[in-house]
Specification:
Blueprint lengths: L7 H11 L12 E4 L6 E5 L4 H18 L4 H17 L1 H12 L3 H21 L7 E2 L6 E9 L2 E5 L7 H12 L3 E5 L5 H22 L7 E3 L4 H9 L5 E5 L2 H13 L3 E5 L4 E5 L5 H13 L9 E7 H17 L18 H16 L3 E3 L17 E4 L15 E7 L2 H8 L4 E2 L1 E5 L3 H7 L9 E4 L11 E2 L2 E2 L6 E2 L8 E9 L15
Parallel strand pairs: 5-6, 5-8, 6-7, 8-9, 10-11, 10-16, 11-14, 13-14, 16-17
Antiparallel strand pairs: 1-2, 3-4, 4-21, 12-13, 15-19, 18-20
This protein binds nicotinamide-adenine-dinucleotide (NAD).
Nicotinamide-adenine-dinucleotide binds next to helix 8 and helix 9.
InterPro entries: Ald_DH/histidinol_DH, Ald_DH_C, Ald_DH_CS_GLU, Ald_DH_N, Aldehyde_DH_dom, ALDH7A1-like
Family: Belongs to the aldehyde dehydrogenase family.
Protein name: aldehyde dehydrogenase (NAD(+))
Length: about 500
Amino acid sequence: MTISALDLAAETKRLLTELGVSADRYIGGTLRVTSPVNGNEIGVLKEHSALEAKDAIEAAHQAFLEWRAVPAPKRGELVRLLGEELRAAKAALGRLVSIEVGKITSEGLGEVQEMIDICDFAVGLSRQLYGLTIATERSEHRMMESWHPLGVVGIISAFNFPVAVWSWNAALALVCGNSTVWKPSEKTPLTALAVQALFEKALKRFVAESGAAPANLSTLLIGGRDVGEALVDHPKVPLVSATGSTAMGRVVGPRLSQRFARSILELGGNNAAVICPTADLDLTLRGVAFSAMGTAGQRCTTLRRLFVHESVYDKLVPRLKTAYGSVSIGNPLETGTLVGPLIDKQAFTNMQSALEQARAAGGKVTGGERVENGAGDAFYVRPALVEMPAQTGPVEHETFAPILYVMKYTDFDQVLELHNAVPQGLSSSIFTNDMREAETFVSARGSDCGIANVNLGPSGAEIGGAFGGEKETGGGRESGSDAWKAYMRRATNTVNYGKTLPLAQGVRFDV
Ligand code: NAD
């Protein structure tokens, strides 16, 4: 069947019904959603107003006041049930991700697997929200550090990980005793409706098992920037985790700090890999191909800059060009496809404009053209490999499309400097079998990114590590390691169990 003949509206309806979303949620509104797979309209949603958003936040605050009193391991039980619902719904939700975002099947499923993984992580965490006992200088005193729930956690997410980003934040926020209010991308609200329905199913089971849980523990707000801003400006939202472009973070960050709220900013990346003389070139080829072309170049961690040592340049780059020329591009729902569509026409225009700029700066472009699949309103492209004489012009910016800028290098210290000489700092990697180069890359004088890998590409992180980046990537960390601490407030407690009142630092105040 041709792509344009696919009835994605009907399939979306079937999936949403299976996932527990009633039809009145995605018909009869003003927010039109189309599938990038063939441009079919797949839903028209009602949007929330900024006023409704404010009311929802007040209600979420009430939910927080109750939820914070529930013991953390019991809160973990809700997240365990959510994980179970996600497991049962993996196929349907993964398929819906593929339809709404255009991800290939294994990536759509992989995104849901990531949600399951973070639920598992959060359940374990619910029994490990450890504080410290700290040595005190005063006798018969005890000093400790406690972690308490924070409040309503606002979640603003980008189109390219339409559901996983919610779970990274929500699973941790919930076990930490918070309520959440989520504003997904206006390009991907249908998968958000499905996730909300799964959450509500888990909550119902939790209530049946445990007796009670507050209403409005997790709220979904459908809308654009104005709804996001209502979340950002509301005094009862002490933390907003915002994932998206650096341009969005530049607006959201200062607005949050203006009212002394916390932020987790997960913004754009401009990720690089360094290919050294001793690199295993077969492995490198696969690592580069997945990182640069996977998800049609629409991951925050997508590989965009490739520095290849002059001694291996002529061995690797022609092989890469062959891979770029032969990679299967097309219907992401079909087995065997590796590169699906761009999200929309604007993404295609941005890509073409970056390629023009690269040509003007002396770049030699291979690929990048539109691939006609008989679906006029969908935008499929051949990934572009651009040999650049230097790191200038569009190489310094993130273009959210599959463009890989390739540059030759001679000296290791110089390439480290070039690697770090862009404003973004999300992910990075080095391919080498030289232990000194590998260790230097991950050392303090190596990559300046939040993620630095050896012998694998910069994209495709696991949930166990803290995820996020430096500089214009925003500095936030979410997901694994001790990222949970951002979702709680820390209190230092000193308890005097003696009969005297010794003051710290030997201060005397005898009245
Ligand atoms: P975007 O910035 O256009 O939108 C992201 C979200 O922010 C949307 O929900 C949008 O409605 C909201 N938003 C925009 N302006 C806002 C404002 N002023 N106040 C409140 N909310 C606002 O990003 P996108 O096109 O959906 O996603 C692609 C971008 O996201 C890329 O730059 C990519 O690198 C980045 N991204 C980063 C990460 C990460 O973890 N670092 C992960 C995924 C995507």
